[in-house]
Design a protein that fits this description.
Blueprint lengths: L1 H26 L6 H8 L3 H7 L3 H19 L2 H4 L3 H18 L1 H12 L8 H22 L8 H17 L1 H6 L8 H18 L5
Helix pairs in contact: 1-2, 1-4, 1-7, 2-3, 6-9, 6-11, 7-9, 8-9
Length: 206
Amino acid sequence: MANHKIEIRRRNVEKILQAAEQVFAEKGFGATSMGDIAERAELPRSNLHYYFSTKDDLYRAVLQDLLDVWKQDALCFEQFDDPRVVLTSYIRAKMSHSRSRSLGSKIWAEEMLHGAPLLGASLDDNLVPWAQLKINKIRRWVEEGRILPVEPSALLYMIWASTQHYADFGYQVALLNGGEALSDMGFERAVQTVTGVILRGIGLEP
């Protein structure tokens, strides 16, 4: 019985987060109500308040869920040491989630553009040390002569900008692709192009 309740909770939270991600991306934080999200999730509003007391709490949960996904994408920095393997894996994972979680990426971008008013200081404890570990590894690759000299943080930002472009500017990408989203083949070409440009820029072959 306990496991059944846990599974119901997991499914409901997942359903709420998916609905919230959609509505926040479409309407923005200010114009979104808990009622809007409950309607999209096809759940009573009381269910939302059972899991998330306020809209602020739900918004933070959506952003934290996305950050957790991005952290999973970066596990290759811990699992492998070969810069070619790490960066190839990381770029593909980031671009794949730019495709599957494009709305979440837009919400994150909006939060950063406004100075992280809701995430605030939590980023100091969450994002900063996580990113620093990646920067330190890139710096070690440079020091060991395994990649060309590069400012580690700039390389990381370049990867983020290149991969998340396909989410944050999805409309522009589709517009320049004849008004249609990239096909699977087109997306694969984009992944290989971004990967190749970044690897060659630091002296590696794809």
